[in-house]
Each structure stands twice: as C-alpha cells, then as structure tokens.
Amino acid sequence: MQIKFLKSIVEHLINKPAVLIVDLLAGKKDVNEFLIAKKLDLTINQTRNILYKLSDYGLVSFIRKKDKRKGWYIYFWTLNIYQSLNLFKNKMNEELNQAKNQLKSREEKRYYLCKICSIEVTEEIALLNDFTCPECEEIYELSNNQGFIDSLNKTINRLEKEIQLINIELEIEEERINKKKAKKIKVAETEKKDKRKKNREKNIEIKKKLAKKEGKKKASKKTIKKKSSKKEGKKKASKKTIKKKIFKKAVKKKVSKLFDKLKKKKKK
C-alpha cells in the first residue's frame, strides 16, 4: 500500500517512467545514481534531472562522495517515505475539497445542457442567453444533477478512505522514525556516559599520581628534617662533651694547685 501511494505521488509530480525510481529506492539507503541510471536505461544526466525534481519536493535526499580514482563526485540517493506520504496526503485533501465543493454546487444550483454541442452551463449563463445555445441555437435542457451527485459521492468516499490509509502509513513511518531517533539518542547518551566514566577514571589516576608525588615530597622533607635534627643533636652533644672536658681540665688544675700548696706546707 505504501509503495502504491509513493508511486502515485511520483507519477503525479513527474511522469509515469519516473515511477520505477520508487522500486529502486524503496527500503534501501544511499543508492548509487549510476546504478539507478542503468536500471532505468537512461543517461546519468536524465536520471539526475528526475532525481533533482523529486529532491525539490523533498521526496528524496542525497549524499555525495568523491571518487578517489576519477576525481568527480558521485551522488547516493535515499527515498524520503514520510515526506512523500505527507505530500500525497495533501494532494488527496485538495482533490477531496474540490469534490466537496462541486457536490455542494450540484446540490444547491441547477445546470442546463445543450445536447447538440454537449456544453453544460450554469443557470445564470443560461438565463443570460435566454436558455438558447449561442453556438447552435438549440434550446437548453435541464441537466440531471443526480448522476453527477452520485459520481461525486463515490469520489469523496474513495478519497476519504485513501486519506485514512495514508494516515495509517504515516503513523507507522512516524513510529519508525521516532524509534530510530530514540535509538540514536540512547547511543549518544551511552557514549556520553562512557566518556564521562573515562574522564572520571582519568582524573582519579591523575589525582593518585599527584598524591604519590606529594607523598614523596613530604617523605623527602621528613628525611631532611630528621637529618638536620640528627646533625643538631650531634652538635649539641659535641658542645656538651667540650664543656665536660673544659670542666675536667679546670678541676684537675685546681686539684693540682691544692696538692702543690700542701707539698709546700710540709716542706716548711
């Protein structure tokens, strides 16, 4: 049903031979334009003209890639199903409105027919011509509107049914597009989460490395402090020993002086 609608809109907008493009692009993505030209048995320029016309209506989209060997650009085409169906729905709505207006006119007004010329006119025109055909001077006869009314009612019913079917196809296509979008969003979100996770892990690693460096610096500072404190302790200890030595020498001098005095007293 979807393919039928797509073919109808392409035939309406371009021509009947262009309808084959729908079969070549339906359900596919990025189809090589040279392949399309070969299948249609047309030149690449003729094929591009058709595709460009469809592109102007938004029915097809394309991407282009440069041929590394030959140096020119090759176009790859994709059918825009949703846009095509929407355009076809608009066309059907226009036809439906026209049919409804005609039905209203047939139900409310009277029409007159010249059987010889097969020309039908409104009551206003018939009145201006005194109900006589200006071409053959035959008297106008009142047209049977019922046949037209029945035909228009059939057309209206057909168009309304087609529009309902198009709406169903549009809903299916919209659901497919939304699912595709949701999938893309989900993939993008997971990629963002993974990226954030990697960044967190990276930051943690950097912090650990910085902490290790700081720890080494602190440790080196502590060892320097310990060494300096040891040196100071040694200096203090050496000062104490010097003082003790000086004190011992002074005591020895005093003791020797006392012995010398005692010796002198005994001699006397």
What does it look like?
- With 268 residues, the protein is mostly helical.
- The protein folds into two domains: 2-79, Arc Repressor Mutant, subunit A; 84-202, no CATH class.
- Helix content is 73%, strand content 10%.
- It is built from seven helices and six strands, in the order ααβααββαββαβα.
- It has helices spanning 2-13, 20-25, 33-40, 44-56, 81-108, 123-128, 145-267, and strands at residues 31-32, 60-66, 73-79, 111-114, 119-122, 141-142.
- The chain has a three-stranded antiparallel sheet.
- α1 (2-13) crosses α5, α3 (33-40) packs across α4 (44-56) and α5 (81-108) runs antiparallel to α7.
- The longest helix has 123 residues, at 145-267.
- It is rod-shaped and about 195 Å long.
- The N and C termini lie far apart (153 Å).
- The model has no long low-confidence stretch (mean pLDDT 82).
What is the radius of gyration?
52 Å
Q: What distance lies between the first and last C-alpha atoms, to the nearest angstrom? A: 153 Å
| Order of neighbouring strands in the sheet with most strands | 1-3-2
- The succession of helices and strands, N to C, reads HHEHHEEHEEHEH
